[in-house]
Amino acid sequence: MTRRDGIRTICVLAFCQALLVAAGSILLSFNSLVGSDLAPDPRLATLPHAPLNIVNAAIVTPASLLMLRVGRRSALLLGAMAGAVSAALTAASIGLGSFSLLCMGMALYGGFQGLGQYYRFAAAEAAPEGKRNLAVSAVIGASIVGVIVGPLVGIQVKELIPGAPFAGSYLAAAVFALVSIAALSCLPPLRLEQNPAPRDDRGLAVLVRPSVFAALANSVVAYMVMVTVMVATPLAVVHAGHSVGDTATVIQWHLVGMYLPSLVTGRLIDRFGEVPIMLCGTLLLAVSGTLALTGTSLAHFWGALLLLGIGWNLLFLGSTAILAGIADARDRVRAQGANEFLVCITTATGAFLAGEIFAEGGWTSVSLFVYPLLLVAALSTWRYARLKRAAQRMLPSSGTSA
């Protein structure tokens, strides 16, 4: 792939990432409201989120192996097709008054989300020499466009179909997915280059390498801390006497913190390396927790959630840089698949724990919950850095890393 083709591929993947987030923000913003109208029991209003998370967790590891066989583009196209069908089914569920169809549509969206998580890895492989981290940053940074555009479009078209509120919003999500299909169809196959040399198939042994273990630990901790705190935040903000509108503002700034730093994080990783960036992310998450413990004013919530987003970004992109840099394609897809699976499990667990922790101990318990997790991330990063320095001292000319 030429440099020009690589840049074009990265731009398309960033565009598709924005569309993925835009479609997802529509479905996730309005799904509970639609579920409350269609569910036979009000307690089942949020049930459609369950099949989404189940399918997402089930598909991410097989998806990585599928990409090894058929190439990134074909698998990503399959995901976008699932997204288009998903949004169409959810729109139809409103017109037909079918709760089961809504659940089916959300399950298919889990496939769209699961496969779409590999946009950043595809961009890293298409990047020109020395630009891998910038490519990942560009793709993740494009998410901020989707965060803004998706809900705005969804609200504007929610009454598009008379008598079926929000059906127009879901059809807008289907359009986003269809545009993704068109964009991805313009790309080359994006096949992963495999090492032709014979080697022992060690299965998932790659996961215990210090570098990969550090990446997985930081990724899991980043998501567990971020999701647990973020899900508990609306409860804490209202409990502290602030308005629902204040809650929306706090979450909005949190999302800005998650995605906007991506515009520079790649350059920082190129300049300083993954280890300092991940340690800085861990520190910012600790500062976020400390700020949350010091008060419940709106400024405290705003600052804590903004730092939470930035810290997540540094850990997430730092771990992505390590996983994208694994030389052997088979090891790379195994590690990436394991990472995405663990992230899915972590996200579901964090969302579940948030309510339990807040109910038992309030906002203080939620804030204290993060510190043991951050210690795990810091220790794994320190171990990786120590072994990497030792390897470089032993073989300075080979560039060997742990």
Protein architecture, described:
- It is a single chain.
- With 402 residues, the protein is an all-alpha fold.
- It folds into two domains: 3-185, MFS general substrate transporter like domains (Growth Hormone, Chain: A); 205-394, Growth Hormone, Chain: A, CATH 1.20.1250.
- 80% of the residues lie in helices and 0% in strands.
- The chain has helices at 3-38, 49-70, 72-96, 99-116, 119-126, 132-141, 143-156, 167-185, 210-239, 244-259, 262-272, 274-293, 298-324, 329-368, 370-394.
- The two termini are 29 Å apart.
Task: Give the key terms.
402 residues; mainly alpha; Growth Hormone, Chain: A; 2 domains; 80% helix; 0% strand; globular
Residues in helix, %: over 70%
The helix/strand order is: HHHHHHHHHHHHHHH
The Rg value, from CA coordinates, equals: 21 Å
Distance, first to last CA: 29 Å
Low-confidence stretches: 398-402
- The structure class reads mainly alpha
Topology-level CATH name of the largest domain: Growth Hormone, Chain: A
Estimate the global geometry from the Cα principal axes: globular
- Our estimate of the beta-strand percent is under 5%
Total of DSSP H or I helical runs spanning 4+ residues: 15
CATH architectural designation of the largest domain: Up-down Bundle
How many strands? 0
Q: What is the CATH superfamily label of the largest domain?
A: MFS general substrate transporter like domains
Counted up, domains total: 2
The top-level CATH class of the largest domain is Mainly Alpha
Q: What's the overall average pLDDT, rounded? A: 87
Q: The biggest beta sheet, please?
A: none
